[in-house]
Fold this sequence. Notes:
Strand content of chain C: under 5%
Strand content of chain A: under 5%
Order of helices and strands of chain A: HHHHHHHHH
Radius of gyration of chain C: 24 Å
Structural class of chain A: mainly alpha
Number of helices of chain A: 9
Number of helices of chain C: 13
Helix content of chain C: over 70%
Distance between the termini of chain A: 14 Å
Oligomer: heterotrimer
Structural class of chain C: mainly alpha
Order of helices and strands of chain C: HHHHHHHHHHHHH
Amino acid sequence: MKRKRVSLYIGISIIASLLAMMLVSLFYTPYPVTEMNRNERFAPPSAKHPLGTDNFGRDVLSRIMKGSQTAFLVGLIAVSVGGIFGVIIGAIAGYFGGILDEFIMRLMDAMMAFPGILFALMFVSIFGVGIRNTIIAIGIMSIPSFARITRSGFIQHKEFEYVKNARVKGVSNLRIMFSHIFPNVLSPIIVAASMGFSSAVLSEAALSYLGLGIQPPDPSWGRMLNESQSFIALSPWYTIAPGIFITLIVLGFNFLGDGIADLQDRQQ
Amino acid sequence: MERTISEGTLLQVRDLKISFTTVKGDLPAVRGISFDIGRNSIVGLVGESGCGKSVTALAIMRLLPSNAQLSGTIDFSGRNIVAMHEEEIRKLRGSEISMIFQEPLTSLNPLWKVGRQIDENLKMHTKMSGGERFRSVIDIMRDVGLPDPERLYHKYPHELSGGMRQRIAIAIAIACRPSLIIADEPTTALDVTIQAQILQLLKDINREKGSSIIFISHNFGIIREICTSVCVMYAGHLVEVAPTEKLFCGPEHPYTIGLMKAIPKIDSKGRELYDIPGKVPSITDALPGCPFEPRCEYAFERCKRELPQFKALGDQHESRCFLAGELR
Amino acid sequence: MYIYLRKLFAMLATVFLVSMITFITFEIIPGDPVLARLGVDADEAQIRALSEELGLDEPLSKRFFGWITGLFTGDLGQSIRYSRPVSELILDRLPVTLSLALISMALIVIIGVPLGILSARYGDRLPGISISIVSQIGMAVPSFWTGIILMYIFGLTLRWVSPGGYTPWSVDPVEAFKSLLLPAVAIALPSIATVTRYTRNTVMEQMKNNYVRLAFSKGLKMNAVLFRHVLKNALIPVITVLGMITANILGGSIVIEQVFTLPGVGRLLINAISVRDLPLVQGMVLYISLVIVVTNFLIDIVYTLIDPRIKLR
């Protein structure tokens, strides 16, 4: 049983460290992110540049730190947007049922038929690239999974005694949904949020790698991978750092989500 | 209680202790029980949930999870099951000792035809050819009272009724003519009418094929109907052992007496149903004295301190109470 | 019989919805599609000509029906950039993407399922735990990064395969396979991890069942119980996950084709988006999503066929 907590602790440590790095980067990075140094292009990791330098001689560590801001920002807003809309849609579908539920679920299924990246690509092809559209696209992409989880929670709970009691007492549907049922469904939603975060980071990275996501000068780990690939023959080091950090933050939120899910299991 | 293995004894359990190692520590499920299973007998193992009867059954077949610790001896035809290697006990399973579980729907593989599930036993333990096995399976299916076995062979479990499924489970259990069958609440999940048929079937198997049966249940009525002798368990201990009629006509342990009183009788209309006061102790409680003492109306000082030994009451009747023989 | 018809109907409903969403997205939302295509400086004549050609003076419903019927005849419109029918362009690139997808799927099933079974068998011991950890990492690593690294190691450094590019099957099957192997591995990795975890879970779930205890009580060995009894039961839910895996593969190939510069549907899509060749984008989006919907439907049918418990309806 103690073993099950491991996921949670690993997740928390990773996220906390990255978060700390992100917060520090708001005030300080070892080098100015845009400072170029012709003489030090493609340097391998050293004491001076722990993660090496890129094709313009810019310090990779500083750029990674700045890139973490984007990662967290995109993840946070996309998950919030997707979460809020998804939960509302799922709650309505689960609670009221009937044709509304059928229709909503068909819609969600249709949305889930698109691979995530495809949907995001569709979106930016219409509305253009950039950080705002990237966040919106990813946010919309995460709606179906929140909707599904919320919906099953509501379907389950609406049959419970306490809901029937509340109805008999004349409590309005809206209140029942959000004051009574919602707190009970919160746990799986939080797990979905954690997983959604890692999913959002991966999607943004892919999008930015393709050049269709975050545009310069906004920093992005995904776009750094694109830049580094062109020069991979000259310096493989530049490709390693962004990939590792993307993996870390995704790993962190995955472990976190798993850990919270395990906690729930045990409570039950 | 020392007894040498006589000709008529199939299984001899001595001081069997079973505990489970968990993060919360060692949980003792069975605290040292001893009993005999004779040839051609049907022995009932009766007690409330959690008294350790199912665990005992699984222990005889060494089917307990890996965190279970066994000590004591389970003597089967001269070999100690507790000490056997996995390879040795595997040879016994299905061929000499077999088991029937409580829930017939879930104990059959939903994706296999029922006939094949019986066939598997024969394939494993005999050298019969495919054709011979098929005919054998059909015969066995007829033996357990299944109609139209040739057609039924190719059906899947979910296509059969509960009673038929249990007959299939029984067929699987008797396929290799085991000398011992362990039936763990085989009729609990069935309709009352089907129950009667299955009980009759088991009696027939015992009589005609000579298999001994350990019949586990919490239902006294059924026990009385089918068993030749009964072992009563409480909180991991064996508290009374007797031939069936002797137990029912003259129980000599406060727990057994209490259980008998609790059986609703046809003429007790209008009177409150008797319930033994108190609760079954949890598996983690440490019990220095008699486990039933807290709930016992005959208890006295010694019962708290000392665990009673078995007192022989003649005629293979034993009770683990200081007052055995004097209670009525 | 009934149940198949119901599923077919559901699939067609989804197809309809997907087409509608695509239509709305590409025909209506961008505002004036003519200007979107020609740019703001186009002159009157061009605008009128294109409007007529696109049938924009017709009512919306008529346009939509035109679009739908076009789907059935395989007419997805004309690409602006290449001045060729969209369907032709897709067909050209199809073999590459399809081969890539098939190789990836094969890798996923051949590696993922056995690994999952292994992980379940030795769940609490070293192999089980290490597989768990590795699969966690596998799911977290971005596939395009894996692709870059693989290409660097095997393409540039070791030179076992050529770094990027593609040789058609018809020219040299061995070279073709070599050029697709690394991309397939990159795409497959996260899905292998997912399938491993999922298989492990279903197997462990099945092991808790009564029929497993009965199997042991017959005297069967662990391997026999696992492979003869548990496996089939455990794999049924895994089949349902294959639908999601298909979506992952197709999505992954869009990015990976870019990493390895493979002339597939995905790369065409990215190019089309960069130059705002909306008819081309629209056609490909629709095509890819339809492939997924139909694949899900087929998987669903297979699932129904395999599980005898469902036949009875």
